[in-house]
Amino acid sequence: MTPLRFTVLGSGSVGLAVAASLAQAGQAVTLLARGGAVALLRQQGITVTGVCGDHHIAPQALKVSDVDQPDPADTACDVLVLAGILRARGAEYFFTSPVFVRVLQQTYNLRYLMDKVKEEGL
User: Which of 4, 33, 68, 110 is the S-S candidate for 11 at Cβ 3.0 to 4.6 Å?
Assistant: First the structure.
């Protein structure tokens, strides 16, 4: 079976934890970050500490790409993980990060998303 290629958009605490877990499991992971986090993650990797144990993901164990200038190969993935904060405005949900808004260019109706999940049997 061909391994899946994961791209994690968002390098906050949740995005880093997801990317680290996937990398530790041996998956191909690209982390889309921005600003000073790009250089820092490329140099230091990710260190995770918590109730599930402490571990370090070496910089060479995952690819870190600048979300503002991604290489097309970095965004070609089988699974895109959106690790950002959603806010509710009535039945509409929207991402607070301008990066997510720019990438997705829309808000989400929760009822629509739930109906799609049911239709697809997810």
Answer: 33
- Pair 76, 32 in one domain: yes
Contacts of 119 (CB under 8 A, 6+ apart): none
- Residues 34-54 pLDDT 10s: 889 999 999 999 999 988 788
Spell out the residues 6+ positions from residue 78 whose beta carbon is closer than 8 angstroms to its own.
Answer: 4, 5, 6
pLDDT in tens, 14-30: 899 999 999 999 999 99
Q: Are 11 and 33 in contact (CB under 8 A)?
A: yes
Quote the domain boundaries for residue 24.
5-82
